[in-house]
Write a structure and sequence with these properties.
Blueprint lengths: L2 H16 L5 E5 L1 H4 L9 E5 L18
Antiparallel strand pairs: 1-2
């Protein structure tokens, strides 16, 4: 499995578990540009229909690509 495919698989579970009710999401950064490595992070922008306030969140997983 490629780094891109592994990142997409990991992203799906993160979106459903951490951001319930999201409308859509998109990724950016090195993974999307095709420059990602096993040590790359996954940059996600998650969009909701409505929010009382916006936020930025950083978290780490023990899962490696």
């Amino acid at each position: 499995m490629s780094v891109f495919e592994t990142a997409v698989e990991a992203t799906s579970s993160v979106l459903t578990s951490r951001f319930p009710g999201y409308s859509f999401a998109f990724a950016s950064g090195s993974i999307i540009r095709g420059e990602g490595t096993k040590g790359s992070d996954i940059d996600l922008v998650t969009v909701f229909d409505r929010l009382e306030t916006a936020w930025r969140e950083t978290f780490y997983s023990t899962r490696t690509l």
